């Protein structure tokens, strides 16, 4: 009766059924206490051509599914905690090697024992040595992306997938008789060149684009997604798996998509609402219950599942115990690396095209993919909630830079400084307006316009920004509450450059905030320049004593970040001997070769003649209260017209 009616071909009907499944699949799975992943995969199987036949796996669904697969790997690269990865890179290397080698050895042995030729067994093993981050959505929802075990698993993804790719290429070339020296020269050069362009060239281009043409978030979102597609296509052309290209481009874009910002939320929402569910449904549509019910297929799939699970579990347990992480964290490492999708399908397709395996082995791999999705989803739901979200109190200085904006004349300068500090740490600016409880609607509208101006400046400086208008009982209370609520790591406060005796050091409000702030405060007197040409650190004899080292260290931390973002140099003007200053720079973890040192007598007296247009002048908090006010005011007068920043540690 339904012949000629199914499968649906009307675009509207196809769209409606697909997204009804996106909606209903997870809800039904939740009722049955199954992972949402399984609801989508099984739902795709039911409506697919091998069961009811409501939808055919047409170009539209295949395209959405393929984009969802790329997005899974892309999001993993975007969310990788780069700072944690640098600190614990040995974790990723050890786990990456272990989670690759263990399945290679175990699955190869099982496959040969099941009667598969050695070369075909190696290709099948390479399929299961790689992995797809099927359970990453759950990990992300639980805010575990900065967890050490998760960081190790994400870093291991790159190592295992690239290694599996190399094994597949070697085995396929050997089977096809193409393993000549010239082939390997071209392949190696292509892989090295591709990684160099993506990891080093793309970030520089992205920085230029975001500070120029890409100052609109819609343009940025389009740029990121198109970059993901281009990277995948180019990777395929030079013989690299497209999912590896998607992961690498995610790493390249990582510094430009800070967590908990508008652009990060838009990328995640689009992927998790559309692309990933479409991928899982598309995968389910491949499954044919009758074809996979064959005895030989089931036996082979069972052996593969047992071997792959045992190998991945052994790698996770061994590496996790070596790292010293908890049992649930080892479980989440297993969950992230047990999932199989594109890599497994690609490897088995290559083996089938070379005539090394038949339809039985291919169907067995499809069963393994389904089982791995179930295992990955179940283990993530089991172990994820038992892991405490990581403490972000040790985040880099520029992770979340809060800047109150109230004066239209200084908003551009203050936000530019905040954006330079934030962008260097792949962070974000939080621009806040604090209004009194009795604020009028016209005041709120005016301050919202000011917040939009701050957003435009921050985006133009290449940084992401979040804006808000806050109603509070006091200005200082509103600023400090924002720092706590937004998990701020640094605070930039505007200063007029002087204060009278009744106002204290910087002014009553700033002094109160400095006294109570849980984060470092950068007291900034905006200058007349709209571009940073040099970063000047003023270092007097009093600034290198034991009581002032914290302030001096903070001043250099800020100087390094501003100089890096502005692509300029640091100049230290001091009344100390140059050798002593260089020793202090080493003690403060500052690259002494990156700083030019100018030794003069009477620093503040000579400063007006040493400064030039475009200089940003920094100093640390002096060690005594009397010098805090007097010294900062003298520096502001000496640096008339230039931006002056006094770094005050908390």
Name given to the CATH architecture of the largest domain: Up-down Bundle
What's the overall average pLDDT, rounded? 80
Give the C-alpha Rg.
Answer: 29 Å
Neighbour order of strands in the largest sheet: 3-2-1-4-5-10-9-6-7-8
Shape: elongated
Helix content: 55-70%
- Based on secondary structure, the structural category is alpha/beta
Largest sheet: 10 strands, mixed
Number of helices: 24
Distance between the termini: 76 Å
Give the class-level CATH name of the largest domain. Answer: Mainly Alpha
When the domains are counted, the total is 3
Report the sheet-strand fraction.
Answer: 5-15%
Q: What would the CATH topology of the largest domain be?
A: Na+/H+ antiporter like fold
Total strands: the figure is: 10
- pLDDT under 50 segments (min length 5)? 623-627
Secondary structure elements and pairings:
Blueprint: H1 11-31, H2 36-47, H3 59-79, H4 82-87, H5 89-113, H6 118-129, H7 136-141, H8 148-176, H9 181-211, H10 217-237, H11 242-253, H12 262-286, H13 295-323, H14 327-338, H15 342-353, H16 359-383, E1 400-404, H17 411-424, E2 428-435, H18 441-460, E3 464-471, H19 475-485, E4 490-494, H20 508-516, E5 521-525, E6 534-539, H21 549-566, E7 569-574, H22 578-587, E8 595-599, H23 603-610, E9 615-620, H24 625-638, E10 643-648
Helix pairs in contact: 1-2, 1-12, 2-12, 2-16, 3-11, 3-12, 5-6, 5-8, 5-13, 6-8, 6-15, 8-14, 8-15, 9-10, 9-11, 10-11, 10-12, 13-14, 13-16, 14-16, 15-16, 17-18, 17-21, 19-20
